[in-house]
Amino acid sequence: MLTLKRVLPALVLTVIGAIGGTGAFAAAPATKPNILVIISDDQGWGDYGFMGHAQIATPTLDRLAAQSLTFTRGYSPVPLCRPSLATMATGLYPHQHGVTGNDPALPDAGVNAQTGRTNPKYASYYNTIIEKFRSRPNFVRELTGRGYRSLETGKWWEGDPVKSAGFTEAMTVGTGKGDRHGGIGLEIGRQGLAPVTRFIERSGTQPWLVWYAPMLPHAPHTPPADLLAKYLKLAPSEPVARYWASVEWFDRTCGELLGYLEQRGLRENTMVLYTTDNGWIQNPEVANRFAPRSKLTPYEGGNRTPIMISWPGHVAPRLDREHLASNIDLWPTLAALLKTDAPRDLPGINLTDAAAVARRTTIHGEQYTHNIANVDDPTRSLQHRWIIHGWSKLIVPDQRNLPAAQAELYDLQADPWEKTDLAAQQPARVRELGKQLDAWWTPPAAKN
Questions:
Q1: CATH number, domain containing residue 239
Q2: Residue 17 scores a pLDDT above 50
């Protein structure tokens, strides 16, 4: 049984289609819909059955995709978990909300190996990052202010979720040793779903928001024995088998959660949003390590993800393999469906607005080092910006940090894994997209 120190209503970004069903324990539906946000952690964009993977089984997410407005060309505008999660909550790009990396960079950051003491500057700098996030509006605080009970579970970097985001309950304490990216909250999924089901049962008819962000299929890849045995027979190596099995393990937990909602008669009145924080390509030789052009890179393996929106009877299921979607769109979409407020300057769109989706031809993203070089100048760690216009993708290195690197151009329709760089063959296209990228955001000069 999972021990829960604190339980908070959470936002679960998962879009699940019209599943429905009223079980023996059916509850009277709340006037406002419940909201479940499901966030996969370190999962490749193609690692789903509905995305065409030949070996990995994801029956729950395949079903969800069929019952959702599903964008197969979805993106995280940053390929790293902490800034990605901050973007989901705030609807802003990392250069706008100021959380650009996982940790502050210090020569002796964290615990000194010789003295065993924690560098006091590390804690101070870490709190500076949290305050940047806390100072921005986010959809959790907005919905809690409108009467939602909200629970945080799983990945969470910004300290105390109640104080920093406005959750009413949380698994993550955010103040103790080991709470850097979720603490006890990271037990969710891996050790059952009891904190979520207990929270829902306590909520009664009051609308709730659940943030279900388990550290799955994220390393360590320690799947149940039956799943590991299955994939050891299918995968080219044990490290790959462990990752594939962890993907199905995540899918299994999603099935348990959605099945619980169906049994309780809650699915029809629950909006589900689904995305991932960033991509992953498993290193075939080394367990729990990602391969090149994966996490922490501007390539498709680092930033592409399917995005799903589901609300039975309100959002028509459709598989969209053409139009572009982004995690910056989650709050605008949620606000539009709930008819609630969102900041007018959010850069995203309502993904259920077909006209807005059709008008969008371009999305953008940025990629930074794992550690923030200067918390007072968070974009100083920038390595790449990228733009996708139609099926063309331009990746532009930041000359301050990668002075020898060159821009790269890819045709994603013909070359979805970016194997052929077309920049030298199409210099005019590089210049054209480069101007559009600069018009979106030109990084400021570094502070002294």
A1: 3.40.720.10
A2: no
